[in-house]
Design goal:
This protein is α+β, with helices and mostly antiparallel strands and 250 residues long. The chain is 36% helix and 16% strand. It folds into two domains: 1-165, Orthogonal Bundle (Arc Repressor Mutant, subunit A); 170-246, SH3 type barrels. Strands 3-8-4-5-6-7 form a six-stranded antiparallel β-sheet. A two-stranded antiparallel ribbon has the order 1-2. The chain is globular and about 55 Å long. The two termini are 34 Å apart.
């Protein structure tokens, strides 16, 4: 990832050599899986990730995951114990945040500068995130005006790897009839789902009202239109409620 060097922490004697793309990908996925359902990438909010879950996400055999986690543990980037899952260390968390910063800045740049659809940017960013320099990252951030979130509403770590303060939000599936709010985040990279959300006007910043939950899905109002949203999509749509007192994450 450019010329970035990784250290084990404040007591590290010397910087480590750059990590491989695969190692960076593992660290990023441990963070994303550990924080899934919480809408935050803060280390203290993450949960341990099982080897099987990580293998399914990386599309490799569990034995391959175990081997990689042992290497990352030796580098001081993860805490791993068989049958108890894996968590990032402070050093590993910083690496994962740097990869996420590259990824989400690239998504924002492709969307705003080059006119890519929000359903297209993820796959392109996956290819580019390991290959941009820190100088290029800075130029992108400056051109974009140092954005705090990507096109899907995911937080972009700052240049110092600090995360912006997110507004409290809940999944649409966890709301009560009559709840109203603003779309804060769309937590999927499935192109067909994103195309549907865009067609319905359900992008970050859009206002939505939950009418009712039904067996077939969630009935919502967006502007003057009413829609029936399948339960699977109601799970990935995160809403910042108008009534803050109702907005405990769920």
């Amino acid at each position: 990832m450019g010329s970035l060097k990784y250290t084990a922490g404040p007591l590290a004697a010397s910087p480590r050599p750059p990590l491989s793309e695969a190692q960076e990908d593992y660290l990023k996925q441990v963070l994303l899986l550990g924080s899934e359902g919480r809408g935050t990438d803060r280390l203290e909010d993450t949960a341990p990730v099982s080897t099987q879950t990580l293998a399914e996400r990386m599309q490799v055999r569990p034995a391959s995951v175990t081997g990689m986690l042992k290497k990352l543990a030796e580098l001081g980037l993860v805490e791993y114990e068989a049958y108890r899952g894996v968590r990032l260390t402070q050093a590993g968390h910083r690496v994962a945040l740097e990869v996420l910063r590259h990824h989400r800045l690239i998504e924002a740049y492709l969307h705003q500068a080059l006119g890519y659809g929000w359903e297209e940017v993820h796959s392109e960013a996956e290819k580019l995130e390991h290959h941009i320099s820190e100088a290029f990252e800075q130029r992108i951030a400056e051109w974009l005006g140092h954005p705090s979130h990507d096109p899907h509403g995911d937080a972009i770590p700052s240049a110092t790897l600090e995360l912006p303060q997110n507004l409290p939000n809940r999944r649409l599936a966890a709301l009560q009839s009559g709840d109203r709010g603003m779309v804060a985040r769309v937590a999927t990279q499935d192109q067909d789902s994103l195309n549907l959300f865009a067609h319905l006007g359900l992008k970050p910043g859009a206002r939505v009202e939950l009418l009712e939950h039904a067996a077939e899905g969630s009935r919502i109002r967006v502007g003057k239109e009413r829609y029936l949203l399948p339960a699977s999509l109601a799970q990935v749509l995160w809403i910042h409620l108008e009534d803050i007192d109702h907005a405990n994450p769920a």
